[in-house]
Fold this protein.
Amino acid sequence: MSSHPVIQILPDPIINKIAAGEVVDRPASVVKELMENAIDAGARNIHVSVIDGGLKLISIADDGHGMDRDNALLSIERHATSKIRHVDDIENVATLGFRGEALAAIASVSRFTLTTRRAEDLSGTEIRINGGRIEDVGEAGCPPGTRFDIRQLFFNVPARRKFLKAAATELNHIRQVFLLYALGRPDIGLRLTSDERDLYRLDADSQIEDRIRQLYGPDLVRDLCAVSWTNGPWRIHGLASHPRLHRADKAEQYIYVNGRPASAPVLGYAISESYADRIPRGRHPILFLFIEVPPGDVDVNVHPTKKEVRFRRAGPLRDALMAALTAALAARITETAAVAGTPTRDRATPDGSARPGAEPFMRVPDLPVLPAFDYPVPERTMVPLSPSGSAPSASPSGAFAASATAAQPNHRAPWHWCRILGQIADFFVVLETDEGMILMDPQAAHERVLFERFMRSLKGRTLDTQGLLTPETVTLPPLKAALVRKHLAVLQEIGVGVSEFGGDTFLVEALPSVLGELSAAALLADVTEELELVGKQASGLAAIRDTVVQMAVRAAVRSTTQLSREELERLISDLAMTAMPYTSPRGRPTLVFTSIQELNRKFGRA
């Protein structure tokens, strides 16, 4: 008798549960599939209602075209679909759903009720299914459209159910899915109810700007640039953030291909290249983009959950998206400069061509031969900061006064004296020192100064906060809002005066004064992500070190900031007094040193 396992065909109940694992992994997956069905059915209004984060009930009702009895029964069979008739149809899918897997998969792992009626029928059909087994089919009085009631999801798959999170967490994922389709279809009226309480009521027949105002408030819309580009059957339109507005992750990038929320590597590349010289490395713009191409130009069948697509002409589409974004940003920046009365200046791209509309880089005006400013001998180089955090003022001769008492006697500054000679590429500062030449990155240097100043205040419990003249209300996506609520105490400990204002909106009334002026919205979005990443691995000051790094990065001067000579001298002095002047808190070099001996060797004078 052979001991080898025998190959056999799996029975339908097991097949359905395996398929459910691919299509449905949490309540939010159910909401996604059923909202897509409602949109494909031509619904003008969709109402999503959940109880206990969807663990007890998910109900989705629409006013779409509905189904008759026969089609309703067919809809719950595996691979039953109205979207595909021939194999060639797969290459021209124009709907969100098309595989016919979702309803059968959901019904196999829940107590499932489908109620539907066409407008021309006098009565509707109700089908009740328990864990994949049809229990009852009958007539029902109901309005035109379709309603799904999903109760006790995964009641018959305990292994899957135990991996579900708390109701609040599952609700946040549902809200994120709801927002994804709310932003993608502003023409549809949408409502989300949780435990019989309305979370969102969004009007039908809206424009994308109106929908963003409803969901995020008016402030975000003001920092968005209109994108509009057309070439034959291809069209790219929507909104993209001004370079001054960016995030630490891509959570607020909403991209739709033929109405389908989707991503593709080629799109990510085009977006990164379009913003490459406009925002700091590692940062990401906010996007609400709609890409429309002929259905035959995009393959939507390359990912099990349809999250990713593939384009047949990826290169031309990449170039089109880059052209659309570049034109939108250039137009907005030119418009802003014209209003401010300052001309814009083209910046050369790596291939030597000019990139129009780029914002001006840091420029230090009028740099003749400047007086050097002296530093004390090594054992007395640590000059205590004044209460305001500023460096000592310069004397008429250009020399900085030093304190006779050193805070760290063994600390050695990078130089005894130096003078500013000029700038390279309108950004990097050239310094002459007693030992050679230094190139300084002002942004990295400022990050180091702010970080050490902030950490010193935290450790000494001398952190001051500065009340905002006008408190800011900040509306965040559901998952980020949940992180803010979770870490409110820590945010307040590091000087962010934030409180809940209702829903996903928070009121920011104060920020750490040591960091100067910051955008409350960008700060909350970034530091809460960092707190979540490090919070479980450390405690005390160590737990918020990376958060402070992010705050320092947000507050540091940008490559688009113009600094005066006095401001640069103050920055150089402050950097010399830090404990680690050679790198930023992110590990980037602040200084690149070339000694006189090395210069002599390079010129054959050694």
